[in-house]
């Protein structure tokens, strides 16, 4: 049984249909990444998985049960969600934010438990935030702040994590830092992770399963080397490209066509004087 699945799912904003009669099964214990052009429905689909958007038709299944028939706390005990650009209460410290992740496990009149403390400590350790736990979240760098939000979702201790563009607005180093963290989490604890990414090359590097969203449904899905092809890029993104191979990981690399400064290979130059003029 899949941890997360959609059956005959249709999603709309007003009179505009975004997803139409979609069937999708998310592989258990794997990293699945949604890709596609702007406005194709990637984030909308993720929002429906998180029960933040009610389907027009169809259903979302979590561990074989319709999430529409589950309580908010029941869903939150099994699935954690990190939306794009989450809103932060003013002057909250890292520790206070991470402790919020234990909310689904709290009961009326129940004191903060040893298990709550254990999960918060573990989340801080996994995200390397122990030394920053007393800092205000809004005083942190972009990468540190994103790690704090991820720590909050980890403190929920769920089997499924949903993340909408977790690397948005981060520089290259912080993007890799966040994705490495999620990769380690999947490898070490077999968490099922579903996220939206815009960077196709990073998606290919980190995903076990890629889902290309297009034309109100799924264009193709599977291993990155099966999905990321010149035809898929042409169909989904409307552009021409070349597909190469990542020299470090052997995963596909998309090189888009377009204009740019051409570097003339050094061997085409003759003489040191000509090299000095160019370089």
TrEMBL record:
<keyword id="KW-0547">Nucleotide-binding</keyword>
<dbReference type="GO" id="GO:0005524">
    <property type="term" value="F:ATP binding"/>
</dbReference>
<dbReference type="InterPro" id="IPR027417">
    <property type="entry name" value="P-loop_NTPase"/>
</dbReference>
<keyword id="KW-0410">Iron transport</keyword>
<dbReference type="InterPro" id="IPR051535">
    <property type="entry name" value="Siderophore_ABC-ATPase"/>
</dbReference>
<dbReference type="InterPro" id="IPR003439">
    <property type="entry name" value="ABC_transporter-like_ATP-bd"/>
</dbReference>
<keyword id="KW-0408">Iron</keyword>
<keyword id="KW-0813">Transport</keyword>
<dbReference type="InterPro" id="IPR017871">
    <property type="entry name" value="ABC_transporter-like_CS"/>
</dbReference>
<dbReference type="GO" id="GO:0016887">
    <property type="term" value="F:ATP hydrolysis activity"/>
</dbReference>
<keyword id="KW-0067">ATP-binding</keyword>
<dbReference type="GO" id="GO:0006826">
    <property type="term" value="P:iron ion transport"/>
</dbReference>
<keyword id="KW-0472">Membrane</keyword>
<feature type="domain" description="ABC transporter">
    <location>
        <begin position="4"/>
        <end position="240"/>
    </location>
</feature>
<keyword id="KW-1003">Cell membrane</keyword>
<dbReference type="InterPro" id="IPR003593">
    <property type="entry name" value="AAA+_ATPase"/>
</dbReference>
<keyword id="KW-0406">Ion transport</keyword>
<dbReference type="Pfam" id="PF00005">
    <property type="entry name" value="ABC_tran"/>
</dbReference>
<dbReference type="GO" id="GO:0005886">
    <property type="term" value="C:plasma membrane"/>
</dbReference>
<protein>
    <submittedName>
        <fullName>Cobalamin/Fe(3+)-siderophore ABC transporter ATP-binding protein</fullName>
    </submittedName>
</protein>
């Amino acid at each position: 049984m899949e941890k997360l699945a959609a059956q005959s799912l249709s999603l709309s904003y007003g009179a505009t249909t975004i997803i139409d009669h979609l069937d999708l099964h998310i592989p258990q214990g794997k990293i699945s990444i949604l890709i596609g052009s702007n406005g194709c429905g990637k984030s909308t689909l993720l929002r429906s998985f998180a029960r933040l958007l009610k389907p027009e038709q169809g259903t979302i299944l979590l561990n074989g049960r319709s999430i529409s028939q589950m309580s908010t706390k029941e869903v939150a005990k099994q699935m954690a969600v990190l939306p794009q650009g989450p809103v932060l209460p003013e002057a909250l410290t890292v520790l206070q934010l991470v402790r919020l992740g234990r909310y689904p496990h709290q009961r009326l009149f129940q004191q903060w438990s040893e298990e709550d403390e254990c999960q918060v400590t573990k989340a801080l350790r996994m995200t390397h935030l122990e030394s920053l736990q007393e800092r205000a979240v809004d005083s942190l760098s972009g990468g540190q702040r994103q790690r704090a939000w991820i720590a909050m979702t980890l403190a929920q201790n769920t089997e499924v994590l949903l993340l909408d563009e977790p690397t948005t607005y981060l520089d290259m180093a912080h993007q890799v830092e966040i994705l490495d963290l999620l990769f380690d989490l999947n490898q070490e604890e077999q968490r099922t992770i579903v996220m939206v990414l815009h960077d196709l090359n990073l998606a290919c590097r980190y995903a076990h399963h890629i889902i290309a969203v297009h034309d109100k449904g799924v264009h193709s899905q599977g291993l990155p080397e099966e999905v990321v092809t010149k035809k898929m890029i042409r169909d989904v993104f409307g552009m021409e490209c070349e597909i190469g191979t990542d020299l470090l990981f052997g995963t596909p690399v998309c090189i888009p066509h377009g204009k740019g400064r051409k570097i003339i290979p050094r061997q085409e130059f003759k003489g040191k004087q000509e090299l000095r003029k160019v370089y």
